[in-house]
């Protein structure tokens, strides 16, 4: 495998496999696809993501040939595909319901398309065996679809649609019918198969996690339009609009008025006025809080009378984890440690009497306009004492959702805006005992958010 | 399981007696020695013997079977086509009217259907015979087939056909290789229904039959007017037996198939 990054969409010389050119699709009065133009490149894993009714399935059915565009053209390898019916296209589709032929065995299902091509018996047999091996279905070849489990059916559907080695494979919510665990495993399997076969995949899904996991590029759709099509990282970290930011993952949106910023110097100096010593003292303090379970009176009596002779004397001191090493404390603290604030960008005035938010990555051209700062919950810090950070906001904890690996704190800011801060429950940091109704500080870096115009 | 109370047992006995007593009497008297239908004179199978030698009955039976097989086959083809269009085609002008018209013959009095067919055949100058009976039976049994097949097609997953097209089938191949095998049970039961309807139809057949061709129900009906003979009893017993064997076999096959499917699905879940 070459180490070059797979990014044909950034390569001006790359020839796209599929080109949508001003494609519009109407069903009567309803416009399902509204004048869309975009390219999909060879060997891409392209995801169409959006809520139901956004037109993503129509997009896919036009590629498969079950629908024809009302206006515009779709090119496959430079050729207009409109005159070709589904059975004459080098495009195969994996259906949401799998659409396995119930009267045929797994083997015959996979061989179905090959037989239609009039291939020789040996060729068909060899190709079917290859597909069975690829999808690990060898021992189920003779079974009927109703004699295998849901996950196996999904693999049969995939094998059948890949058997004819299409230029383009369309997957319509391919994992919708699987349970969560199996779905995750299958996502990686799909990526693996896509890489092995080198086929271009277009997947339609409403599950953003699935799209982010498998796809090389994700197109976020809304009401017949692609709002943004880019790599999962860009979609998540630099959403182009409020809609995308809100649709993908959790996000805090803070509205305000933008103002151009000269430099980061004075903001950094105010941050440094706080003593770091105060902050470091906090962690050992939290350590002293009692937390190990204590035996009650009856337990103590039982131990002293009976178990002492077997287990030895009872220790009154509760068992505790060892105190954090200096490195650990430092690591925990550095999560919210100050650092130099980059110059430039904008400040956002978001509430009366509150310091403006600093967004050094904001576009100064937005100055004087209403903007929204979108910050992901995991990029917010939460602490009881004022942290040293470019942005520190006062708030009150309204709700805490404990998710095991993470805790999400719902915090109400001064002007009533609710924000969510997500903290990984690592061993040490989890001990800061923030609870309901606590006054806390919400902090984030000057580059943590994305400034979105109206 | 609760035991039957005497009330339930009585209800059951009365109900079944009401349904089956006439047939039981018919079967019992078909083994009667005496020529008189109402007088029991001992057990004998001689009426079955004379039946086999009765040319008129055998001819009528042969005509009936020909009519039933041919008309139910044509009715199945036409009825399936009609069902496909009515279930599949999107909205077109007058669609509700058409689907209503397919079902109308189900409730149309047979006398009227028969009479109108008779008038048509006279009008176009078609000589009445086996051909006209076949046409008439196709006409009225086709809508039964279409009802049975369309009820199956409603639950048929369209994406199966789209998958076949996607894999390179023409529309006709997709129907032949995917749709038809899957809806085959409904088509077969439609055929069986049409066959049975044709087998026992008296009213429409008597309107459309000519002197050259008489079906068994017409033959039985006309010989009854000359007095009931034990031969008729024997013939009816044979018909009951054929129908009973057919019905029981069909239900056993369906039952076994569904049981096996259930077992397979259970096994697949644990696989």
From TrEMBL, chain A:
CC terms in the record's Gene Ontology section = ATP-binding cassette (ABC) transporter complex
Tell me one GO molecular function of this protein: ATP binding
Instruction: Please verify whether the record's keywords include Ubl conjugation.
Output: no
UniProt-listed PROSITE patterns: ABC_TRANSPORTER_1, ABC_TRANSPORTER_2
Residue ranges constituting the ABC transporter domain according to the UniProt record: 18-248
Where do the record's region annotations for Disordered lie? 314-333
Instruction: Name one process (GO BP) from the record.
Output: putrescine transport
Q: Which Pfam families match?
A: ABC_tran (PF00005), TOBE_2 (PF08402)
Assigned keywords, A-Z: ATP-binding, Cell inner membrane, Cell membrane, Membrane, Nucleotide-binding, Translocase, Transport
Gene3D superfamilies, sorted: 2.40.50.100, P-loop containing nucleotide triphosphate hydrolases
Protein name in UniProt: ABC-type Fe3+/spermidine/putrescine transport systems, ATPase components
Species of origin:
Roseovarius tolerans
Classification from the root reads: Bacteria, Pseudomonadati, Pseudomonadota, Alphaproteobacteria, Rhodobacterales
From TrEMBL, chain B:
Q: What's this protein's family per the entry?
A: Belongs to the binding-protein-dependent transport system permease family. CysTW subfamily.
Where in the cell?
Answer: Cell membrane
Q: How is this protein named in the record?
A: Putrescine transport system permease protein
State the GO CC annotations: plasma membrane
Q: Which residues form the ABC transmembrane type-1 domain?
A: 61-253
Q: Which SUPFAM superfamilies match?
A: MetI-like
Species: Roseovarius tolerans
Extract the Pfam families matched here: BPD_transp_1
- What membrane topology is given? Multi-pass membrane protein
The protein's matches in InterPro entries, at most eight in alphabetical order, are given as:
Bact_Polyamine_Transport, MetI-like, MetI-like_sf
């Amino acid at each position: 495998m070459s180490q070059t990054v797979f990014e044909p969409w950034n390569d001006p010389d790359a020839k796209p496999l599929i080109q949508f050119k001003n494609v519009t699709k109407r069903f009567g009065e309803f416009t399902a696809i509204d004048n869309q133009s975009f390219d999909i490149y060879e060997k891409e894993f392209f995801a169409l993501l959006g809520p139901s009714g956004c037109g993503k399935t129509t997009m896919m059915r036009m590629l498969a040939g079950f629908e024809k565009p009302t206006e515009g053209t779709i090119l496959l390898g430079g050729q207009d595909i409109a005159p070709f019916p589904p059975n004459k296209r080098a495009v195969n589709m994996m259906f949401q319901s799998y659409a396995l032929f119930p009267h045929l065995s797994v083997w015959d299902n996979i061989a179905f398309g090959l037989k239609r091509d009039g291939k020789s018996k040996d060729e068909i047999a060899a190709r079917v065996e290859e597909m069975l091996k690829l999808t690990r279905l060898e021992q189920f070849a003779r079974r009927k679809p109703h004699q295998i489990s849901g996950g196996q059916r999904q693999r049969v559907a995939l094998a059948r649609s890949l058997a004819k080695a299409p230029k383009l494979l369309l997957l319509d919510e391919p994992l919708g019918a699987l349970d969560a665990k199996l779905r995750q495993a299958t996502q990686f399997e799909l990526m693996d198969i896509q890489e092995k076969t080198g086929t271009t995949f277009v997947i339609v899904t409403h599950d953003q996690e699935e799209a982010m996991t498998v796809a090389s590029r994700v197109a976020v759709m809304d009401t017949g339009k692609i709002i943004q099509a880019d790599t999962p990282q860009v979609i998540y970290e630099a959403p182009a609009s409020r809609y995308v930011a809100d649709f993908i993952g959790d996000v805090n949106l803070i509205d305000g008025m933008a103002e151009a910023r000269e430099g980061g110097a004075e903001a950094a100096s105010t941050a440094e006025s706080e003593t770091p010593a105060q902050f470091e003292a906090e962690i050992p303090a939290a350590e002293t809080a009692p937390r190990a379970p204590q035996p009650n009176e009856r337990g103590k009596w039982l131990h002293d009378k009976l178990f002492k002779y077997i287990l030895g004397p009872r220790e009154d001191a509760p068992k505790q984890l060892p105190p954090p090493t200096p490195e650990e404390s430092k690591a925990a603290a550095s999560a919210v440690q100050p650092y130099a604030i980059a110059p430039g960008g904008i400040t956002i005035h978001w509430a009366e009497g509150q310091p403006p938010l600093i967004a050094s990555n904001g576009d100064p051209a937005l100055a004087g306009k209403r903007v929204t700062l979108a910050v992901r919950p995991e990029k917010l810090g939460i602490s009881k004492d004022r942290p040293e950070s470019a942005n520190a906001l006062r708030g009150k904890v309204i709700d805490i959702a404990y998710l095991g690996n993470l805790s999400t704190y719902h915090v109400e800011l001064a002007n009533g805006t609710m924000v969510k801060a997500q903290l990984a429950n690592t061993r040490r940091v989890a001990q800061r005992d923030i609870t309901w109704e606590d006054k806390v500080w919400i902090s984030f870096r000057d580059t943590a958010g994305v400034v979105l115009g109206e | 399981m609760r035991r039957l109370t005497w009330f339930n047992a009585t209800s059951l006995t009365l109900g079944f007696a009401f349904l089956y007593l006439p047939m039981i009497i018919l079967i019992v008297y078909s083994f009667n020695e005496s020529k008189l239908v109402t007088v029991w004179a001992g057990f004998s199978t001689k009426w079955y013997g004379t039946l086999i030698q009765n040319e008129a009955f055998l001819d009528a039976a042969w005509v009936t079977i020909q009519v039933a097989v041919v008309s139910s086959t044509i009715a199945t083809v036409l009825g399936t086509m009609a069902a496909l269009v009515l279930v599949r085609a999107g909205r077109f002008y007058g669609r509700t009217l058409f689907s209503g018209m397919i079902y109308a013959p189900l409730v149309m009095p047979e006398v009227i259907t028969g009479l109108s067919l008779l008038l048509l055949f006279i009008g176009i100058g078609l000589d009445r015979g086996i051909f006209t009976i076949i046409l008439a039976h196709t006409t009225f049994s086709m809508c039964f087939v279409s009802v049975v097949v369309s009820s199956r097609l409603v639950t048929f997953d369209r994406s199966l056909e789209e998958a076949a097209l996607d894999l390179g089938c023409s529309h006709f191949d997709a129907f032949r290789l995917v749709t038809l095998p899957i809806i085959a049970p409904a088509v077969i039961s439609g055929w069986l229904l049409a066959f049975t309807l044709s087998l026992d139809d008296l009213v429409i057949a008597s309107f459309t039959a000519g002197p050259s061709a008489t079906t068994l129900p017409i033959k039985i009906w006309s010989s009854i007017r000359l007095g009931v003979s034990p031969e008729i009893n024997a013939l009816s017993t044979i018909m009951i037996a054929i129908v009973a064997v057919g019905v029981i076999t069909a239900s056993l096959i369906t039952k076994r198939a569904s049981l096996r499917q259930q077992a397979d699905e259970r096994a697949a879940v644990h696989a």
